[in-house]
Amino acid sequence: MTHIRSMITKLTLIAAFGFTVLFSNSSFSQDGKALFSQNCASCHAVNKQLTGPALAGVEDRWPDKAMLYSWIKNNQQVIKSGYPYAVNLYNSFNKTAMNLFPALTDKDIDAILGYIKTEAANANAPKTPAPGGAAQGAAAESGDNTLLFGILTLILAIVAFVLLQVNANLKKLAADKEGVPALEPVPVWRNKVYIMFGTLVLFLIGGYYTTMGLIGLGRQQNYEPAQPIFYSHKVHAGINQINCLYCHGGAQDSKHANIPSVNVCMNCHMAINEYAGEQLYTAEGKEVNGTEEIKKLYSYAGYEPGKPWDASKAKPIAWTKIHNLPDHVYFNHSQHVMVGKVQCQTCHGEITKMDEVKQFAELSMGWCINCHRTTKVQFADNGFYSIYEKYHEDLKNGVRDSITVENIGGTECQKCHY
């Protein structure tokens, strides 16, 4: 009997250990993905070049892994040291300065590099059709193992439950054989221990999903609504290289970037009444007739080709707003664009490659705070920061090599909240 109990105890411990390992691995992977999204995704992708180089195989490209870690934390210091690979990399990207990440620990960097390896491996793996259909194939290609971990956890829970039942029955059989009076095993639905355990599990699961739901309340990352007119930023800002500020002039002068009026659109489309570019597609893969979309613009403008246009007949286009911040949050476009020299792509993603615009960044408080903690302020030739005499002296004397937004109060509550 003692031997049987020992076996059951060992099996239970093994199941618990497996449960812990599965979830610790999942947590580590998720941490790497979250850290990559918060710190790297605005300038880097795993398998393609953006503002910075593609990160797939980054560990293999650096001769010294310790220098890679130093580069991630403070690239300017590594460049000043004259490390050849770092200097060549800096020069090859037109001396574009990378943000500093002194807050990242070696463990954080390990998690990010692990996520990069996983994503690179998934991208290079052969794509085979999933037997369960396109939806399952997409899930498999995404590398999301949440369902697998959930199934394994459920199996382990069932095994543990069965072992407990076996243990109770063995105890009763042993007692009957020895002639010792034993109580009948309590049915599961009346066992207070099982009821308490089930209640606790439901409470934890419910609390987790409630908390995550509240954290995500009001966020709409990847929100991509259909607009009344199919306006392709890829065609206008990408292929035709129309400056963002031509249509969104408020971004450099005021708090709001502004949506252009019909008049701005008609500046070009009085002359351009046909679309002859590459085929356009919606997010669902449906073909779009560009010329017909221009005709929709004409209907809003009250314009008939070949006739003089009376601008007073124009009516506003009911564009669907994509980026929304809570009412208690203050954000000023001009301060970021003109003073902070922040590129549009930092917050809006590769807008020049988007047909239908979606919300690229999560725009959460944590996302903004992290940016303020790591983004360097451009002090040189920037009169806006002339009042920070101490920091200018520190930079001049080599006490500091850079100033972040956090240093000038960028994480103070009243900066962003009324």
TrEMBL record:
Domain Cytochrome c: 27-120
Pfam families associated with the record: Cytochrom_C, Cytochrom_CIII
Superkingdom, natural source: Bacteria
Residue ranges of the TM segments: 146-164, 193-217
SUPFAM superfamilies: Cytochrome c, Multiheme cytochromes
Keywords, in A-Z order: Electron transport, Heme, Iron, Membrane, Metal-binding, Transmembrane, Transmembrane helix, Transport
GO MF, any single term: electron transfer activity
InterPro entries (UniProt xref): Cyt_c-like_dom, Cyt_c-like_dom_sf, Cyt_c_III_dom, Multihaem_cyt_sf
Protein name: C-type cytochrome
Organism the protein comes from: Panacibacter ginsenosidivorans
Origin organism lineage: Bacteria, Pseudomonadati, Bacteroidota, Chitinophagia, Chitinophagales
